[in-house]
Write a structure and sequence with these properties.
The complex is a heterodimer. Chain A is built from two helices and no strands. By secondary structure, chain A is mostly helical. Chain B has a seven-stranded mixed sheet, with helices on both faces. The chains are: A mainly alpha, B alpha+beta. Chains A and B meet through helix 1 and helix 2 of A and helix 4, helix 7 and helix 8 of B.
Chain lengths: 50, 786
């Protein structure tokens, strides 16, 4: 059973890593605008001039 | 052929321009098209049809004030010796084509390095070469392609939104983790290994700390505030519940009894925050709170010893002489120094007709100059001027008025009920089992935590608000749903609300026999920019083909009277009865040749469709009034529509509209006001529900509780119906959540509440509420739609 303590700590560290990523993403403004990027990715690349 | 402009989609109008097999309504639109074509940006027209905006003809130095160092530094966010970054608010952003165009601006203008659009906030973050380009030049570039920047908006703080997302994320993280660790608690096997239980308990304690201290902090603050204001709200029992839950759990962790209710605690906070998030999802792209400053310029031209100097608006002093140019807004109440001027007060009054003013008369702030430049002397500085004062007073008043939400009224009863149950069970256990008193009291507080109750309002009203938005009424927040349900008087503005200002109806009473006369009248109205001239022009050219050019020997527009032209000693007049020397007793626009009547027109604004059925529906349950800033010439038309003559008032000023609303409210009525102009703004702010009506969601609307798409005016009864239904849904949800609470309290007072019961009861009640409110409102929406 002893291994479960290690597993718990490891899982908590992984979870905390994602929590930190989430906090970083929020702070850097990734959730400020949830509409524009969805449109932006659909724009065609510039038409090639023949 | 489609008679709309390829660029902006407007009617092609007087002189369409052709280029590349495409038609344009004006040089501006064609110019933008050319610019885009040169830079291979014509994809702009592929994402939406006719997405463009008609660029205004702005003067070269419209934005010159931006180069004043003290104004410039207000907007520049970053600057080094090569580049500068600026965040421009572009209110005209409205579709995906806009995003395409603005994000490719660097292709059309090499001095721009990069631009990035935030659609919801209608912002563009632009990086440009600071040596090659002045800020004013940048602003002018966007103005010329149809996106005039707005420099008035205060910098919005994104921070509150960010911290909310963080709170929600933290609570979700804690909830998920603790739930996992607690899982063995709920099975027999896990609960036996004690050292493992202590370990997970302490982990849960650690992870729950930020939830207690950060995520839930809003509730403590709100509860504290409401206690100080002696005004009970739902956050008080919530705070009590959260704290009791946490204290009990910490107690059991310290005494080696397992993690207690830590999972329920984190879950509570998480669900509560989700409810709040749902409630706060509003229409960010619409502006409900535009205040007067967004109409006024930032800087003005002051005349100082024959030279003009640009000064910021804050530094205007009484007695200053200002130069106002064509199309500019008058920044403060002032006196006209020139002989005459024509002012468009449509911002202020909503009426689109220009007003003529003579020397030494008062000009009010907010009016827009329609003719060549004038000089004015300042009488009152901007924030003291008549309109802004009226406006500010109203906003202050509204802020202090206390409106108790239904939810909070219920909360008061709820709190008392919980306290009474606590006391009674304490007394009972004092007799039967004193050792259990603490456990029972804490349990009661825990299950009484009105989580489901707190979710009922956001979900019932939030869903109703979103469905109304899909039908064309955009509410400022979900509280408005509740107010809308309680309305018993509806007050309507006339011009722009009941009538459609864009559809002015022209009736020509007599046909013109000579085609030369027809050419003359067309040439006359073509030379004038007055709205009535434009209406007559549109009427005549839609019925007659006419290409003959006419040369006047003289032509003059007499402001407030009409047009006068002479050709070969013949005098042609077009205008009011007195101006043309007619007395037929009819109100209209007369066309005379040497004072002999040729024809006349009756110009009438048209009422929106569906008005009479609207009236018949709302007359059943509501009183209805019409307030108009106009004279009474349309009284009979209004009566024909079904309005009651006693309830129509003409010649109303902004102040008298406001007073009328207040008068009704003092009689105990709850008033809904529907209006469109700035002159309705005080009344809209005073009314219990102020609805601004708008032809175009993205154009100007005065500060209001809701914005209504003008075509949906006839559906007002439906909107009131939805809000009433939402209130019923709220009551059903409340009944459900109280049932859950009663079940919980039964467990609690019999000292049988365990973490397992709490962990089942709490999510079940929340999910029922969310599902029920969403389903019921959606069902009602479907019925309305069909």
């Amino acid at each position: 059973m002893g291994v479960i303590y290690i597993m718990l700590v490891v899982s908590l560290i992984i979870a905390l890593f994602f929590l930190v990523m989430f906090i970083w993403a929020t702070r850097s403004g990734q959730f400020d605008d949830d509409y524009t990027p969805s449109v932006r990715m659909l724009f065609e690349d510039e038409h090639k001039q023949k | 052929m489609e008679r709309i402009c390829f660029h902006c989609g407007d009617n092609l109008g007087k002189k369409p321009l052709q280029f590349d097999d495409k038609f344009f309504c004006c040089i501006g639109c064609k110019g933008v098209y050319l610019l885009l074509k040169e830079n291979h940006l014509t994809d702009f027209y592929n994402y939406e049809s006719n997405p463009g905006l008609k660029p205004l003809t702005s003067s070269q130095d419209k934005y010159a004030f931006l180069d004043l160092p003290e104004i410039r530094q207000r907007f520049i966010r970053f600057e080094d010796d090569r580049i500068a970054k600026v965040s421009l608010s572009l209110p005209n952003i409205h579709c995906s084509s806009c995003i395409f165009l603005l994000e490719n601006a660097h292709k059309a203008n090499s001095k721009i390095i990069q631009s990035q659009v935030n659609f919801t906030k209608k912002l563009a973050n632009i990086t440009f070469l600071t040596k090659e380009m002045q800020l004013s030049e940048l602003a002018l570039f966007f103005d010329r392609i149809g996106y005039p920047p707005n420099f008035q908006q205060k910098k919005e703080t994104l921070e509150t939104n960010k911290s909310f997302i963080l709170k929600l994320g933290l609570a979700g993280f804690a909830f998920g983790s603790i739930m996992l660790w607690s899982f063995p608690e709920y099975t027999k096997n896990g609960a036996e290994d004690n050292s493992f239980r202590y370990f997970t308990s302490w982990l849960a304690f650690l992870v729950s700390l930020p939830v207690l201290l950060y995520s839930a902090s809003e509730y403590y603050i709100s509860a504290y505030k409401s206690l100080r204001a002696k005004h009970l709200n739902l956050d008080i029992p919530i705070t009590l519940g959260i704290l009791a839950l946490y204290a009990q759990s910490v107690y059991s962790i310290i005494h080696y009894e397992g993690p207690g209710y830590m999972d329920s605690f984190a879950g509570f906070v998480f669900f509560l925050l989700i409810g709040k998030w749902f409630q706060n999802r509003t229409y960010q792209s619409l502006s409900f709170d535009r205040d007067y400053t967004s109409y006024f310029p930032l800087a003005v031209r002051k005349i100082k010893e024959n030279t003009e100097e640009i000064i910021p608006i804050e530094t205007i002093e009484i007695g200053d002489l200002l130069k106002i140019r064509n199309q500019e807004v008058i920044p403060c109440d002032s006196i006209l120094m020139d002989d005459k001027a024509e002012i468009d007060y449509s911002f202020v009054t909503g009426e689109s007709v220009g007003v003529s003013v003579v020397k030494n008369s008062m000009l009010y702030a907010g009016g827009k100059l329609l003719n060549a430049s004038i000089t004015v002397e300042v009488k009152e500085i901007t924030d003291r001027s008549y309109l802004t004062q009226l406006w500010n007073e109203q906003l202050d008043k509204k802020k202090t008025s206390t409106y108790q939400r239904y939810q909070d009224r219920v909360a008061a009863y709820f709190l008392w009920a919980v306290l009474i149950i606590c006391v009674i069970s304490m007394l009972c256990y004092l007799i039967i089992a004193p050792a259990l008193i603490m456990k029972v009291v804490v349990s009661v507080l825990i299950v009484a935590c009105p989580c489901a109750l707190a979710l009922s309002t956001p979900f019932a009203f939030g869903n109703a608000m979103r469905k109304m938005g899909q039908l064309g009424l955009y509410l400022k927040n979900s509280d408005v749903v509740e107010k809308l349900a309680e309305i018993d008087v509806i007050v309507l503005d006339k011009t722009g609300t009941l009538t459609d200002t864009r559809l002015t109806e022209v009736k020509q009473v007599r046909t013109i026999e000579k085609s030369s006369d027809l050419s003359i009248i067309i040439a006359m109205v073509e030379s004038s920019t007055h709205p009535i001239s434009s209406a007559i022009y549109a009427h005549l050219t839609s019925n007659h083909e006419n290409k003959k050019t006419v040369h006047f020997d003289s032509f003059d527009e007499r402001v407030g009277n009409g047009l006068i032209a002479t050709i070969n000693n013949d005098v042609f007049k077009l205008g009011s009865a007195s101006f043309t020397n007619q007395n037929m007793g009819v109100k209209g626009v007369f066309f005379t040749k040497n004072d002999v009547l040729i024809t006349f027109f009756i110009v009438q604004s048209t009422f929106r469709e569906g008005l009479s059925s609207l009236l018949n529906q709302i007359k059943l349950n509501h009183e209805i009034y019409v307030l108009s800033g106009d004279n009474n010439k349309e009284l009979s038309a209004l009566i024909d529509l079904g309005f009651n003559e006693q309830n129509i008032f003409f010649n109303q000023t902004p102040q008298s509209k406001l007073d009328f609303i207040e008068f009704l409210q003092n009689k105990g009525k709850r008033v809904m006001m529907v209006g469109d102009g700035l002159n309705d703004a005080p009344a809209l702010a005073q009314a219990n529900v102020g609805i601004a009506i708008s032809e175009d969601m993205f154009k100007f609307t005065p500060s209001s509780d809701a914005i209504l798409d003008a075509h949906q005016l006839k559906n007002i009864p439906d909107f009131i119906g939805i809000s009433k239904f939402a209130k019923v849904v709220l009551r059903v949800c409340l009944a459900f959540s109280i049932t859950y609470n009663i079940v919980g309290i039964l467990f609690a007072v019999t000292a049988k509440l365990t973490p397992l019961v709490a962990a089942i009861l709490m999510p079940m009640s929340s999910i029922t509420i969310v599902g029920l409110s969403t389903f019921l409102i959606y069902f009602r929406y479907l019925r309305l739609k069909n």
